[in-house]
Amino acid sequence: MIKDPHATAAALLPLVGGPANVTSVAHCMTRLRLGLADRSRVDDEALRAVPGVLGVVEDGASYQVVLGPGVVGRVTAAFEALLAAGRIGPAADTADALARRGAELKARQKARNATPLKTALRRVADIFVPLIPALIGCGIVAGIAGLLTNLRWLPGLTPALTALSSAFMALIAVFVGHNTAREFGGTPVLGGAVAAVVVYPGVAKVTAFGTALAPGQGGVLGALAAAVLGTYVEKWCRARLPGTLDVLLTPTLTVLVSGLLTLYVLMYAAGEVATAIGTAADWLLTTTGALAGLILGGLFLPLVMLGLHQALIPIHTTLIEQQGHTVLLPVLAMAGAGQVGAAAAVYVRLRHDTSLRTTIRSALPAGLLGVGEPLIYGVSLPLGRPFLTACVGGAAGGAFVGLFAMLGTEVGATAIGPSGWALFPLLAGGGWAVTAGVYGGGLLTGYAVGFLVTYFFGLPDGAGRPVCDPEKHEPRPADRPGPRPASPR
Questions:
Q1: pLDDT digits 0-9 by tens, 259-295
Q2: Which of 372, 432, 430, 363 lies closest to 397 in space, CA to CA?
Q3: Catalytic site residue 28?
Q4: How far is CA 466 from the centre of its chain?
Q5: 352-369 CB burial, b ≥16 within 10 A, e <16
Q6: CA distances (Å), origin 257, targets 177, 179, 216, 233
Q7: Which of 156, 378, 468, 481 is the most core-located residue (most Cβ within 10 A)?
Q8: What is the second-level CATH architecture of the domain 5-114?
Q9: What is the pLDDT of residues 374-409, one digit of tens each?
Q10: Of 28, 138, 237, 391, which one is the catalytic site residue?
C-alpha cells in the first residue's frame, strides 16, 4: 500500500530513465502510462521491486506501471511535478538529443511487436479511457435516481438527478469526436464539431436512404467514424492548401465534407451496426447464454492483463444508448469474482508467506469492487497457475449468469466502470431484486469455483509448507541430509 505518493514518484522517476527520457504522462484507473524516448534506459526489475508497484506492462504505445486504484492519481500528480522540476536544468539540454536517439528504437520496436488489430484496439481504448470518470459518475447518479423512483422517495429531486445523469450521455458523441481527432492527429475541436451533428435534434429533418434520420442515430460508433473521416479530410486539405487559404478553407471543408458524408452515409450505416450489436448481444445470451457466459467470463482476465478490455467500451456504450443497459458487463464482471476466489485460496495455502499475504490483504478490497489489476499483477500472474484457475472461476460465474439469461432473467448494468459489489446499485433488467439475486449468485459461484480450483490445482505440491520447523528453525526430517531411517518390516 502506497502511503507517500511523492516518495513513490521519486523512486520511479530515475528507474524509467529520468526526466529527459519521459515524453508523456497519463493514467487510467490503475496504471501510470508513460511515453518513453529510450526504452533501454528502464530498469524493469527495480521498478517491480518498488513498494506499492504491482507490476509493469508494455503495450508498444506506452510503458505502464500498475499502482492500483485511488493511489495512481496521486502518484501521477507527484510524478508530473518532479518531471517538470527535473526538466529545468542541465538535463533539459539533452532531452531533444535523447528523444531523437530513442525515437528510432521505439519505432522499430512498435513495428516489430504491434499488429494492426492490437494497434486499432489500443487506439479505441485511448479514445474512451478519458471518458470513464464521467461514465462512472453519471452511471452512479442514474442508479440513485432509479432507486429513488422505485421507492417513491424525494419526487422533487429525481428529475434533477435524471437530468444530471443523462446530460453527458446525450452529448457523449461530442467528447468521442474530440478524443478521436486528437488520437488520429487532427484538430480536436474539429472532430467534436463534426461528431456533434450525430446528436443535433435538427437531423430529424434530413432523409438518408429514404428514411428520416433520428438524433443520436449511430451513437458513439457514428461519432467515431465521423471524427476519423474529418481527421483525414483535414490532413488532406492541410497538405495541399497554401497557408493563406489553409486558415479559412481547411476547417470549412473539414466540417462540410465530413459532415455531409456523416449525415447521408455514416449515421445510417453506424445505426445499422449499432442495431446489429444490440440484437447479437441479446441473441447470444438468450440462446447460448451458459456457453457464451462461460467463454466471456473465462477470457476477460487475459484482456485485462493486456489492457485491451477498454476497447469494449464502445460496445457497452452502444448497448446503454439503445437498451438503457449493457447485458455484457455483468457477465464479464464474473472474471473478477474468479480472481478474488483464487487470491483467497492462495492466502489460505501460502500461510507462511507473509509478504504475499500482505499484498493479498491490501488488494482484496479493490478486487471485491471489481478492480482486478492489483490482484492480477501482485498475486496470480507472478505465481502463474493461479491466473489460469482464476479464469476458470470467472468462466463458472459467467456461465451461471448466462444460464439465467437463457431462462428469461436478463441482468444488465446502466453504466460502465464499476464492477464486483459496486455494480449492485447499477443493475437493471427484470426487477432489481431478481436481477441482484442472479448477479450475486454469479459472484458467489465465481468466488467458490476460483477458490476450490486454485486450492486443489492452482499451486504446486508442497506449496505453503515451511522449509523448517518454525520453533526450532531446523530442516524438516524429510529434508535433512543423510540416510533415511529404515522402514519397519
A1: 999 999 999 999 999 999 989 998 998 899 899 999 9
A2: 372
A3: yes
A4: 38
A5: ebeebbebbebbbebbbb
A6: 16, 20, 20, 8
A7: 378
A8: 2-Layer Sandwich (3.30)
A9: 888 888 888 889 999 999 999 999 999 999 999 989
A10: 28
